């Protein structure tokens, strides 16, 4: 990690940006998501994807998965800044654990007929996307996978009559028997 | 309480708030009433354990509470109403967050059924103050109130201290519920600040210190926040190691200014010897400071040849601005205690005679020198005289923000912690006068002086009325140069001497103003008058506004120009037009 630039150093020198997926276990209390998002906007950090939902309702625990980019020093700062928030229990850098699984779900609406319709179905089958809604002139596909697979599928649908996409953002979990 | 229930813990939300304050040992609350806090004020009226200090503006309450907290080590408590009461608190809350001052702010809120309706004096208090507090709460159920209040005190005062806010809707203040005294389970389970440092890291640090040839200790506000014990341990460590020590603005007083190893403050307006020692050292021990931009100057040229040890209670302070070699997470006092013990057991005082000889040469540059003047009072001279004439007295100093603040830091020697209250991180003009009010409330028999500037002091001058009402004999020592001196200095150095709006065309007559407020006004215009006037000020047992007319165009040196390194300081005798223009070239965009 190199020393970053500062307010006193105009010719900024940047380490290459890295993309990290962070799992954040928080107390599910009012405003907790606003706190996390406010931290990112207030300190100028990036959010590529953010997913949040209650995971243990008895204990009022929510799990936030954030995909962010930054230099290694910024990523370290983000983790420390998250960790010191009062309602945050734990922050785990899934990218550093080396063995995490990341999944995202997308619903993809495609409109068209004839060859385009047949081609869309064929590709969906190759990507293991399911048809969850159909009309005579459209399909809605449900596809699950890592983000790049989903992006690839969407790119393929574009010339075939892509109407719109709804993506959930990334959820992540480590492999093996241990929890976070 | 008109409650007929026999359970003494059944009470209204408003009564719970006052009870919780008492249970947490709060003796003074700074505040201002309004519609949404009337039930609480009604409870305050009916008891005598908590004294309420009525300010003239909510910002004054916040800064007074900061002064109170900083000078006692106890949390400062503020009570204000909803809407404008809460928004006026944003500045002091942010100030306290930046300087790690424990504050508990209780705000009234419109009744829960009106929240979100744009009701009269409604604002999204928790939303607005979220980035200005360490944590905040909106309490919607009276039965949560006791737990939240106890948690608020715990969060404010533990770990890295900071301001917290509890927003209480008016219907919750009226509702009856169950109170319980503070207990362990009131603490947020996810909040576990680390106090004790890692033993392996401490050993590593000791090994580095023991082998240092050119060491320096750089201490900060964290040592003060940790409590008097930390300052004692810091002094013992300096004694045991024989190392030179410098400090940030916030850390002044942890090591005595009269101590033999003291280098003076470091940073933008620090001494030449402190900054050169930092730049050339081989081992740096940073205790409770955060390498902020006023300290480091240009970061890629900051102390390039040193190994750095960083003790801090906040992990997010580590490697934020400067990469360090041995981070130790923990409370400054706790870690210093362990470090000292290991050092004494396993290491000997390293021989650093050559290093001290080098430092002596830097000291000989006498970087705080200024030319004497028999006709006009120089601001540096005024602070020096104030220091000399208050020596040995039980003195507390607060400041506003600007040139006078830097001169106070340079020329007033602090021997003890908790004696110096200044707005370091946020740089809030208008901090000093209300902070002095808070300090004087906590220390009624001490000499409390706000070293002020003519511009800053006008931002919260209305609090003179508070001082008069509560018979707080604060001394407001105004270095009056009729300019916003630091703004003007930067315009001279960086903006071609175009003094855009930094001259106060219509200053009040401070002596008459003092009279109008019912306090005492004094003025000194000549160096020969100064000592007499200061002595008179000290002897008056009432609030004083002291108008000290000083040289209008004096600037604050030495200075590290923006974008420059510690070894590129501009010393006062070198600050001619040409050298200044060269030193400041290219730094315009910087702060």
Automatic annotation (TrEMBL), chain A:
Chemical reaction(s) catalysed: 2 pyruvate + H(+) = (2S)-2-acetolactate + CO2
Mind giving the lineage of the organism this protein is from? Bacteria, Pseudomonadati, Pseudomonadota, Alphaproteobacteria, Hyphomicrobiales
Q: Which PROSITE patterns match?
A: ACT
The GO terms this record gives for MF are: acetolactate synthase activity; acetolactate synthase regulator activity
Its BP terms in the Gene Ontology are: isoleucine biosynthetic process; L-valine biosynthetic process
Provide this UniProt record's keywords sorted from A to Z: Amino-acid biosynthesis, Branched-chain amino acid biosynthesis, Transferase
Q: Which family does it belong to?
A: Belongs to the acetolactate synthase small subunit family.
Name the job this protein performs: Catalyzes the conversion of 2 pyruvate molecules into acetolactate in the first common step of the biosynthetic pathway of the branched-amino acids such as leucine, isoleucine, and valine.
User: Matching InterPro entries, A to Z?
Assistant: Acetalactate_synth_ssu (IPR004789), Acetolactate_synth/TF_NikR_C (IPR027271), Acetolactate_synth_ssu_C (IPR019455), ACT-like_dom_sf (IPR045865), ACT_dom (IPR002912), AHAS_ACT (IPR039557), AHAS_small-like_ACT (IPR054480)
A single GO cellular-component term from the record reads:
cytosol
| Pathway this chain belongs to | Amino-acid biosynthesis; L-isoleucine biosynthesis; L-isoleucine from 2-oxobutanoate: step 1/4; Amino-acid biosynthesis; L-valine biosynthesis; L-valine from pyruvate: step 1/4
User: PANTHER family annotated for this entry?
Assistant: ACETOLACTATE SYNTHASE SMALL SUBUNIT, ACETOLACTATE SYNTHASE SMALL SUBUNIT 1, CHLOROPLASTIC
Q: What is its EC number?
A: 2.2.1.6
Q: Quaternary form?
A: Dimer of large and small chains.
Limits of the ACT domain: 21-96
Query: Transmembrane: present as a keyword of the record?
Result: no
Put simply, this protein is called: Acetolactate synthase small subunit
Residue ranges crossing the lipid bilayer per the database entry: none
